[in-house]
Amino acid sequence: MSSRRKTRKAPGKQHETPRRRGEAEDRPAELPPAALLRAALREETRSHLDGASRADTLLLIQQTRGNAYVQRLMQPATAAIQREGGRGASRAVPGLPAEAVEQIETHLSNDPQAALDRLTAALSGRGGIDLSFLAGETMTYVADKSGMAPGHYGHTSITPGDGRPRPCIVVVGPDAFQSVSDLYTTVMHEWKHVLQFRKPDAATEAMDELEASLWEVENIDQTGLGRDLDYLKRISGVLDNWWNLLTPEETAAMKQRYVSARAIITRKRFELDEKAKGNK
């Protein structure tokens, strides 16, 4: 990787050595600015871009990622959405207005970028995120997952330049679009990384990832994922993965939040088990 990227990921291969946030993050980001990726990805934008602008955009992406990547980008975005049976069903998302949830849900499979835009607009309107902290004031949907490790839902990198703070590039992959709840928690996970990049002090990768994952658990009632057993199992593994990679000093600093998060997961799983028994 040419830049240090922060990601929301499922449990998988553990990092052998925690890296510190300042080690590689100031190198040029792999991806072009989000606004340019967005221009190439959105179907309706492709049809309205004039020839020169479209060509310039695709040339930049071609030079950055290669011909095969450009070809995959130009495939219909809906082909890359991987939905699991039943996971995309409508569910309450208490942290978002009901109208926004309905609008986001209608776009999940047929226009992921529109779904992402509607969600970030809703969060921005409530003060949950600040779009001015993002390159192009947007997060970008990328249908192609070849640039992401298996199990990763999105990643965040800092734009090239000197001094801090600088805008961040946030890219969200197709696995985050299984439901409004999944997309909501992914966006907020990446948002925590944006805020981490704005800090002058360094932290290990494990510390940063644990902090972002703890937000997910601490706000599980707002995202609506407390009713998703698969998610509870997955986030439990994520927490354990990063917890085991902390330094002794970080372990001491994060112990209370970690223990509390584990208790939340245990309680939610117990509630689901009791509900399942009652339905038999």
What's the overall average pLDDT, rounded?
77
Total E-strand runs: 4
The proportion of residues forming helix, as a percent range, comes to 40-55%
**Class from secondary-structure proportions:** alpha+beta
End-to-end distance, in Å?
50 Å
**Distinct helical segment count:** 11
User: Uncertain segments of ≥5 residues (pLDDT<50)?
Assistant: 11-54, 72-90
Please indicate the count of domains.
Answer: 2
Shape: globular
SSE ordering: EHHHHHHEEEHHHHH
β-strand percent reads 5-15%
Largest sheet, if any?
4 strands, mixed
Strand line-up of the largest beta sheet = 1-3-4-2
Brief account:
The chain is built from eleven helices and four strands; from the N terminus they run E-H-H-H-H-H-H-E-E-E-H-H-H-H-H.
Could you explain how this protein is built, in words?
- By secondary structure, the protein is an alpha+beta fold.
- The chain folds into 2 domains: 23-75 and 104-200, no CATH class; 203-280.
- Helices cover 51% and strands 6% of the residues.
- The chain has helices at residues 34-41, 43-48, 51-65, 67-73, 98-107, 112-125, 180-197, 205-218, 220-223, 229-243, 248-278, and strands at residues 6-9, 140-141, 152-158, 168-172.
- A 4-stranded mixed β-sheet has the order 1-3-4-2.
- It starts with 5 loop residues before the first strand and ends with a helix.
Give the secondary structure arrangement, pairings included.
Layout: E1 6-9, H1 34-41, H2 43-48, H3 51-65, H4 67-73, H5 98-107, H6 112-125, E2 140-141, E3 152-158, E4 168-172, H7 180-197, H8 205-218, H9 220-223, H10 229-243, H11 248-278
Parallel strand pairs: 2-4
Antiparallel strand pairs: 1-3, 3-4
